[in-house]
Structures are given as C-alpha cells and as structure tokens.
Amino acid sequence: CPFAGCHTAYGCGQPAVPPQLSGRVVGGEDAVAHSWPWQISLQYSHSGSWSHTCGGTLIAPQWVLTAAHCISSSMTYRVVLGKQDLSEDDEPGSVAVGVEKMIVHEKWDS
After folding, report:
1. Which of 12, 63, 83, 86 is the most buried (most CB within 10 A)?
2. Taking 90 as the threshold, does the pLDDT of residue 12 lie above it?
3. Domain count within the chain
4. Would you say the C-alpha torsion 28, 29, 30, 36 has a positive or negative sign?
C-alpha cells in the first residue's frame, strides 16, 4: 500500500473485518469499524481545519473516485482512509493523504 500507515487490507473489495449487512439505509446502523476499507472521506481545508465534504472509493492504490460536484478547483483537499468517526480528529488507524491531482470529467457541467 503506497500510503504511510495504510494496511494491506485496503484492497479492492476485500474487507479486513466482515461487514454486518442489512437492508437498511435510512435510519441505518453504524458500520463495523474497518469493514469498508475502500471508503474514504474527502475533506477540504477551511479556516485552519479540515471538513468532510463527500465520500469516495479507493479504486486503486493511489486513485480515489468521487462525484464531480464534490470538487472545486479553488479548494485544498485531502483523503482520509480508515475513518470510523468523522467527528474525531486523531482517530487511531486513520491516515490522511494530500491530494496531488484532481481530474473532473470533461462533460461535467457544474
């Protein structure tokens, strides 16, 4: 895994911890910690702190896929892996990585 502190369990579709699946989405339950290791938090820098803006999916060791409406060229972003609680800043097992490059689909019309 190319990210410092990242576990090899962050693989394509291979959860380190088996998820507990149910049909609920609205009013759902918290996920088992680390059961969706490819899920990331896309965060932007604002007034000296980081704020969650969108989720995304780790699709390759250094590539994240998210929705185009989540991206603004005027913002600074980071990707956080291994996050269970977005309200906790220094969560054990989470890794924050700066975004080197953003590619927005050429047909996206904001």
Report:
1. 83
2. no
3. 1
4. negative
Q: What is the pTM of this model?
A: 0.76
Residue-number span of the structural domain to which 77 is assigned: 39-84+93-98
Q: Please return the burial class of 33, using the count of CB atoms within 10 Å of its CB with bins 0-12, 13-18 and 19+.
A: middle
Nearest to 82 by CA among 27, 7, 18: 7
Quick one: which of 79, 89, 99 has its CA closest to 6? 79
Instruction: Give the amino acid at 87.
Output: S
Q: Which residue has the tokens 């969650």?
A: 52
pLDDT tens figures, 49-93: 999 999 999 999 899 999 999 999 899 999 999 988 888 888 888
How far apart are alpha carbons 107 and 56 in whole angstroms? 20
| Cβ count within 10 A of residue 13 | 6
CATH classification of the domain holding 47 = 2.40.10.10
